[in-house]
Amino acid sequence: MQGQGRPSPGGAPSPSFCIPADGVHCRGCRWDPDNGICTRPDCSALFTPPAVREQQRSWPHDEQPQLVIAAGPERSGSTFLYNALRLLWQHARKPCDAYYLKCITDAALDERGAGQPGAPHVLVKTHAWSEHWDVNRAAHIFVTHRDLAQVLASYRRLGWAWELPDGYVRDHLIWQRHAELDLAFEDIAARPLWVLKQLAGRLGLQEVDCAAVLRDLDSLPVPQHWVDPVTQLWPAHISPVFREQRAAAEAAAKAAAAAQVPSIEAAGAAAPSGGSGGGKLSAAEVEQLRKQFPEFYRLYPQYLQPSLT
Q: What InterPro entries does the record tag this protein with (predicted)?
């Protein structure tokens, strides 16, 4: 059963998005109590857990709050990126409001206090490029990338699509031109601690214990029936191959008895040689992707190597 137009506490005007931890609901709210979300398509709620929301009230605000964009395309490690950034701020004990926005607009950012003095940092997860905002507002833009053959195999495993849409690559290439850091899916799988340190350094959070953040990332529960609105994880979100790659990376590190995070090469040597969950594409399908998206493969020529497709 869904609630309709639930009022905000104290009779205050309803905002354009829900803040469930504060008991605040948007104008025209269509609240789904079973899944704990508002089903109004343009709500884009703030889903900070209540306990964290309460803790954040006592954390000091930075003088210049940052707008951080996690703009990786689907099935490329973008949800890892989003949760890594979210948890880095949390471990640093700095208030950060994290959202998923299907389309970034200046109006949506203004409503969320992005960059306003005294406001929390704002983290936005998104996929599609938008022409409806000033990109210079972002203090940091981070993207992820992955071999399109593996992306398409992952799409098929999840039953999302049989072909990769042109917009997937078009939007990614625009975001990539604006990004200060472009992370490979292979790095996220094989050496996530290195990834976290790269992100922490760029956010000015070098004091954060990235190993502790990684433990929290690894312990995030994968929902069974519906998307987790806090983590943006879906059922079957994490593929068996990703888990195998992570396990292989850890095994490579232990075998070497090294304190350093293993290299991609070491992890790759130990990892199983399969496609992404749904099996490898045929050689003809891989070649078709290379012909369809030549600019992507010029940007990431490493994916032209047979061993990676």
A: P-loop_NTPase
* Structure confidence at residue 242 (pLDDT): 65
Tens-place pLDDT, residues 88-125: 999 999 999 999 999 999 999 999 999 999 999 999 99
- Asked if 157 and 277 touch (Cβ cutoff 8 Å), the reply is yes
At 113, which amino acid appears? Answer: G
**In CATH, what number does 46-238 get?**
3.40.50
Could you tell me whether strands 30-32 and 3-4 are parallel, antiparallel, or unpaired per DSSP bridges?
A: antiparallel
Specify the residue for token string 């790095």: 187
Sign of the Cα pseudo-torsion (172, 173, 175, 179, in order): positive
Choose among 241, 17, 55: nearest CA to 151.
241
Amino acid making up residue 109: L
- 101, amino acid identity: L
Return the beta strands (E) in the chain as ranges.
3-4, 30-32, 37-38, 67-70, 96-100, 121-125, 140-145, 181-184
CA 253 vs. chain centroid, Å, equals 26
DSSP per-residue codes, 89-140: HHHTT--EEEEE-SS-BHHHHHHTTTT-TTSPEEEEE--S--SBS-GGG-SE
Structure tokens at 15: 């905002």
* Residue-range domain boundaries for the chain: 1-42, 46-238
Mean pLDDT in residue range 261-285: 53
